[in-house]
Amino acid sequence: MATVPLDVGLIFVREYYTFLNKKPQRIHAFYSKNSVLVRGDEGDVAKTYRGQEVREIKSMEELNFEDCKVLVTQVDSQMSANDGILIQVLGEMCNLDNPPQKFSQTFFLAPQHKGYYVLNDIFRFLKEEV
Questions:
Q1: Could you read off the pLDDT of 2-36 as tens digits, one per residue?
Q2: Separation between Cα atoms, residue 90 and residue 85, nearest integer Å
Q3: 126 in a domain, yes or no?
Q4: Domain assignment present for 130
Q5: Where in the numbering of this chain does the NTF2 domain appear (predicted)?
Q6: Burial level of 35, CB count in 10 A (0-12/13-18/19+)?
Q7: SS in 3 state form for 10-30?
């Protein structure tokens, strides 16, 4: 049982960022109507969005993620409430020809009939220097 959160976390992270790179228009499939999403830069106030159809999820293809490359440097996963899995991801994201930016992303995967869905997603680009 100890490897379940780690295995699920690693599989999820690989799939999620592959979709972000190759099929950003389908990234909403990881979410549900109950999902809560936060996006922003470190230190900025970020707005919270709810639901699978929110603009921030449905329109990721408009953000030119077609050539988005992600280097994941750390994935930590653990079992959480109601058989969910908490996942913390650290890495660098490079979109188009822009310089890479460090990021932190936290997911809470809630169980569903087949597998999991993203119930909570907190994403922050990190500052180079604090």
A1: 568 999 999 999 999 998 888 877 888 899 888 99
A2: 17
A3: no
A4: no
A5: 8-125
A6: buried
A7: HHHHHHHHHHHHHCHHHHHHH
Residue 61 pLDDT level (bands cut at 50, 70, 90): very low
Distances (CA, A) of 47 to 1, 36, 39, 74, 122: 36, 10, 7, 26, 11
CATH code assigned at 95? 3.10.450.50
Q: What is the pTM of this model?
A: 0.87
Structural domain includes residue 89: yes
- The boundaries of the domain holding residue 34 are 3-121
Rounded CA separation 69/120 (Å): 22
| pLDDT tens column, 102-119 | 999 999 999 999 999 999
Q: How many domains does the chain have?
A: 1
Type of residue at 76 = D
